[in-house]
């Protein structure tokens, strides 16, 4: 998703790759926290995941947004605003599910699985539907006449 959002914003490849790395670090920290047996280690991984999540949010809310504002028209800016808001809001709910399930043990495995599935559908499927409904990825050359032999 970060790749798509970065490309939509027209951001440079190195910045997209750096934010993708932070995203992978966040996911890894969440996984390590969920499999850790020692409570202190579990909470340490949770905090590391939150710290690594901060640059992702900053990139989506400020850096990528400024890039799209500088380079593109209102249709793309509006689409970027929608997909980045959906991403930040839905991804921000994941830590709360982790807290309620793995962190405190307040939710059972079934409830945890259902909540993660709902978040995945919201964050990934709706994101994809929003992206494919717009034709902002079409290049300007698509508007020119093509000669068929």
Describe this structure in words.
The chain is mostly helical and 149 residues long. It has a single domain, classed as Rhopdopsin 7-helix transmembrane proteins (Up-down Bundle), CATH 1.20.1070.10. The chain has 5 helices and no strands. It is elongated.
Note the beta-strand portion: under 5%
CATH architecture: Up-down Bundle
What about the largest sheet? none
Succession of helices and strands: HHHHH
User: How many helices in DSSP terms?
Assistant: 5
How far apart the termini lie comes to: 38 Å
Q: How many structural domains in the coordinates?
A: 1
Coarse morphology: elongated
CATH superfamily: Rhodopsin 7-helix transmembrane proteins
Average predicted local confidence, pLDDT: 86
* CATH topology name: Rhopdopsin 7-helix transmembrane proteins
Strands, total number: 0
Radius of gyration: 18 Å
Low-confidence stretches: none
**Could you name the CATH class?**
Mainly Alpha
Protein name: Opsin
Family: Belongs to the archaeal/bacterial/fungal opsin family.
Transmembrane segments: 14-37, 43-64
Main location: membrane
Jot down its keywords:
Rhopdopsin 7-helix transmembrane proteins; mainly alpha; 149 residues; 80% helix; elongated
